[in-house]
């Protein structure tokens, strides 16, 4: 799945002051009851005027990353729900628990998963055609799963911030 977001300018030059690009790509495998997992990567690129103070620049970068983080990288309520098999067990125990349990006995149904988020940014200062510019590039990678992820599954989210930014350019927002 690729979500495309706002792009202010069509050119790919580093001197697009105020320009903005954002992208996310997700993939995964499995059913919720069969060790499902999802991996995402993406990021954003912002251009700044050479006169933008560093504190304002990093504040805008952080705000942009915070917003982007909630656009597919973090688990949703569905991630925390049990699988259908687990729900069947819960409902079955709920209906007959008083008849099945002996004094001091317990029945337990367990379910869970994990979520991991990584991020990184780089800021470039440069000069082109006698114009100074600043550009930030930030990337996010996330991974989440219910149960044990399949070790043989296709993993297209490995890579560093440069790979994530290259993904953004290839997908042409």
Descriptive report:
This protein has three helices and five strands; from the N terminus they run E-E-E-H-H-E-E-H. It has helices spanning 54-69, 84-100, 161-171, and strands spanning 2-4, 20-29, 37-49, 113-128, 131-146. Strands 1-2-3-5-4 form a five-stranded antiparallel sheet, sandwiched between helices. The longest helix has 17 residues, at 84-100. It has 173 residues and is α+β, with helices and mostly antiparallel strands. It is rod-shaped and about 80 Å long.
Overall mean pLDDT: 75
Give the ordered list of helices and strands: EEEHHEEH
| Radius of gyration (Å) | 22 Å
Largest sheet: 5 strands, antiparallel
Distance between the termini: 14 Å
Strand percentage lies at: 25-35%
Overall SS class: alpha+beta
Number of strands: 5
Strand order of the largest sheet: 1-2-3-5-4
Total helices: the number is 3
Q: What helical percentage do the residues reach?
A: 25-40%
Apparent shape = rod-shaped
Low-confidence stretches: 1-16, 148-161, 167-173
Summarize the structure.
The protein is of the alpha+beta class. The chain has three helices and five strands, in the order βββααββα.
Tags for this model:
disordered C terminus, 173 residues, disordered N terminus, alpha+beta
């Amino acid at each position: 799945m690729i979500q495309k977001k706002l792009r202010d300018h069509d050119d790919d030059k580093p001197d697009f002051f105020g320009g903005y690009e954002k992208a996310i790509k997700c993939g995964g495998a499995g059913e919720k009851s069969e060790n499902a997992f999802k991996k995402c990567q993406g990021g954003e690129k912002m251009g700044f005027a050479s006169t933008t103070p560093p504190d304002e620049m990093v504040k805008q970068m952080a705000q942009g990353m915070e917003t982007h983080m909630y656009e597919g990288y973090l688990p949703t309520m569905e991630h925390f729900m049990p699988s259908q098999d687990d729900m069947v067990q819960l409902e079955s125990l709920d209906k007959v628990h008083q008849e099945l349990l002996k004094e001091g006995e317990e029945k337990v149904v367990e379910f869970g998963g994990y979520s991991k988020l990584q991020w990184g940014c780089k800021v470039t200062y440069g000069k082109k055609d006698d114009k100074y510019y600043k550009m930030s590039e930030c990337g996010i990678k996330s991974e989440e799963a219910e149960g044990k992820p399949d070790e043989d599954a296709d993993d297209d989210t490995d890579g560093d911030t440069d790979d994530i930014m290259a993904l953004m350019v290839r997908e042409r927002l």
